[in-house]
Design a protein that fits this description.
Blueprint lengths: L2 E11 L6 E12 L29 H5 L6 H10 L10 E9 L1
Amino acid sequence: MDIRIDKDIPLTLGKGENSKPGNLNVYMSFNNVLNTKNVTFVYPATGNPDDDGYLAAPEWQREINEQLDPQSYPDLYAIFINNSGNYSRPRTIHLGVIFNF
């Protein structure tokens, strides 16, 4: 859910015959207001956005256990595989001004 709130303020540039009417628009835009984690990609082997199945696959257990630190390897791999690109953008707030003359 996205929300945009804006306010137009009428302005006049110049004086007399040379004056030009215009507007100043001040806005605030909220994207992903509820800050939901919308999944945009899943790994085909598991159907999850944060697990590709490598750590649980029996054919890779020997290789995983032969790492320098078998305890930290799964933790570091899980951080690597949990790609933020698999989710939509988090909540963002934009504040801006637009001049129209």
